[in-house]
Amino acid sequence: MNADRSHLAGSERILRTDARRNRERIVRAAREVFTARGIDAPLAAVARRAGVGVATLHRRFPTRDQLVAEAFGEQFGACTHALEKAIDDPDPWRGLSALVHTVFALQAGDRGFTQAFLDRHPRAAESTKLDEAERALNALVDRCRDAGMVRQDVTSADVTLAFLANAGLVARGSVPRSASARLAGQLLRAFAVSDGSPLPPSPALPLRPLLSGTVRSAGPDPVLRRP
C-alpha cells in the first residue's frame, strides 16, 4: 500500500514537472515567434517551436490573448513600473519624459511586444488594470499641464499617439533603435512649453533606401552609405 502511494506521488511530481516545462517552452517559443512574425502568427508555429502539440498549447493557454500576455509579461511589467515611477516623481515633466523614453525603448526592442502593447484587445481580467493605467496617465499629464510644463492643449491622447507613431517606426523593421529615441525627444519637445534638453543624436536615415525598404541594421546604430 505504502509503495503504491509512493509510486503515485512520484508519478504526479513527474507530471507536474513535465507540465511546467511544457509551459515554459511554450511561453519562450511564443515570445520568439511573435517577435519575429507578429502576434497574429499561427499558433501551430508556436507549438512546433516549443516541441509540443497544438492541443497541449491550447490546454495551457485556451486563448491567444492569454498566451500573448504571458509571452510579454516582463515588458508589460516594465511599462507598469515605469508608469508608477512617473506618477511618484515629484517633477511630473521628468516623470512623463522618463515614461515615454522607457516605453519607446521597449517598443524598439521587440516588434511582438509593440504589437501586443497597442493592437490586441486585452483579456477581460486585465481590463481593470488598463483602466487604472489610463487614469494614472491622465493624472500625470494633468499635473504637467497644471504646472505649466506642457502646452494647455496637450492631453494623454497625445501620449498615446506618440506610442502609435513609434509603433509605426518599429514596424518598418529597417531603422536603428536610436531612431526611436530621437522620435521620443522630438515629440516630447512638441509637448513642452519650454524644454531646452538636447535631443538624442539623429540616426543616419537616407530617404531613398528608407522608402525602398533597403535600409538594414548593421548593429545597434548603423552608419549608412549614401545611395
Automatic annotation (TrEMBL):
<dbReference type="InterPro" id="IPR036271">
    <property type="entry name" value="Tet_transcr_reg_TetR-rel_C_sf"/>
</dbReference>
<dbReference type="InterPro" id="IPR050109">
    <property type="entry name" value="HTH-type_TetR-like_transc_reg"/>
</dbReference>
<feature type="region of interest" description="Disordered">
    <location>
        <begin position="196"/>
        <end position="227"/>
    </location>
</feature>
<dbReference type="Pfam" id="PF00440">
    <property type="entry name" value="TetR_N"/>
</dbReference>
<protein>
    <submittedName>
        <fullName>TetR/AcrR family transcriptional regulator</fullName>
    </submittedName>
</protein>
<feature type="domain" description="HTH tetR-type">
    <location>
        <begin position="20"/>
        <end position="79"/>
    </location>
</feature>
<feature type="DNA-binding region" description="H-T-H motif">
    <location>
        <begin position="42"/>
        <end position="61"/>
    </location>
</feature>
<keyword id="KW-0238">DNA-binding</keyword>
<dbReference type="InterPro" id="IPR009057">
    <property type="entry name" value="Homeodomain-like_sf"/>
</dbReference>
<keyword id="KW-0804">Transcription</keyword>
<keyword id="KW-0805">Transcription regulation</keyword>
<dbReference type="InterPro" id="IPR001647">
    <property type="entry name" value="HTH_TetR"/>
</dbReference>
<dbReference type="GO" id="GO:0003700">
    <property type="term" value="F:DNA-binding transcription factor activity"/>
</dbReference>
<dbReference type="GO" id="GO:0000976">
    <property type="term" value="F:transcription cis-regulatory region binding"/>
</dbReference>
